[in-house]
Amino acid sequence: MPLESEKIMFEIYKEAVYMGRYKVVYFTELQDHNREYEISRAISGEHFFDGFIRAFRKEEAKEAIESVLQRLNSGETMEAKEVERQLKPFLAA
Hints:
By secondary structure, the protein is of the alpha+beta class.
């Protein structure tokens, strides 16, 4: 069971190429075989929001992040402050 102090670093970004969709990358969960590729995609995209989620509630946090992505990709306009408010229960200090 993960400790409350364990954190997962993530970034929500908008793709610069392809469909211009919003994506998330969980940096601290990347493996050697996909690290370079995923980091390159995130860097080439447009930064939207980043932070750390607590590892002990990561599945709930990922569901909340996925909900945010669905809203953004369906055309809803959200500001970073709204995303922060939605994710507040899962964000680590």
